[in-house]
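Quick one: structure tokens for this chain, please?
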Amino acid sequence: MKSHFKSLLALLAAAAMATPLAASESKPAAKADLVKGEAIATQVCSACHTADGSRGSAANPIIQGQHPEYLVKQLQEFKSGKRDNAIMKGMATPLSDEDMKNVAAFYASKQPKPGAARNKELVALGEKIYRGGIADRQVPACAGCHSPSGAGIPAQYPRLSGQHSDYTELQLKGFRDGVRKNNAVMTGVAAKMNDREIKAVADYIAGLH
């Protein structure tokens, strides 16, 4: 009986010790700090992506309004080298995961501005591929993952609408040619597309909103 009582006390003590741990594990993740994110954006990112991630140089992506989960993933992969870009590796390497979360939330909080397609001759082909794919080569419709409006799906697929056509074209060719290696699905999709098709869909995406 005495030993049974001691065992019961030991179990109660263990439960009491475990309770604070369980409570701490169930705490929600800390919210991103937009003020800290803006400071990082101003000091580190603005030279290439402008102060709010909007329509700067066509060689650099518009990150205004981009899903924060996607931005964090790209920064982590630049830092690790999974996505190869010497400039972005230099920018991302000093950032902690918390820094990345904060700056991604800052850019995500900005209202994206609409863009426009430029190539009237290719826009119909671009729309056909974006909305219907290329059936004879098993190229899926871009809209299937990135949505008909190009808004993407948070935490899964990036926002594309309004993106610089030059940048989108460069990324699609990078996937196709094995230069960009951080997304096997996109590598498989782009591998089946020729230069004209890539240019067409990139230009169509620029005008989506």
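The chain has a mean pLDDT of 89.
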